[in-house]
Design brief:
Strand content: 15-25%
Structural class: alpha+beta
Largest sheet: 3 strands, antiparallel
CATH class: Mainly Alpha
Number of domains: 1
């Protein structure tokens, strides 16, 4: 069973993630690398993303990288926070 994250924990983790990359779209490779570096397991990362999505902190999408399409997270439209 995966760990549950509170609203505050999810927001803090997502803020750190976007603060680190300083961009609005972050690919799966990037966010997994960053969160694994903070000590989170693959299962915990999935739970963080699920909670953040449910809270409206992120949107999920697809980004083209070269000739491939990869999963990405992005700040929701209308998010006026700093870039």
């Amino acid at each position: 069973m995966s760990r549950q994250f509170s609203s505050e924990e999810s927001r803090s983790i997502i803020d750190k993630l976007f603060g680190h990359y300083k961009k609005k779209i972050i690919t799966e490779r990037e966010f997994r690398h960053f969160l694994e570096g903070l000590g989170y397991s693959a299962e915990e990362i999935d739970e963080i993303l699920f909670q953040a999505f449910k809270q409206g902190l992120i949107d999920l999408g697809v980004e083209q990288v070269g000739r491939k399409y990869v999963m990405a997270i992005l700040k929701p439209l209308g998010d006026e926070e700093e870039e």
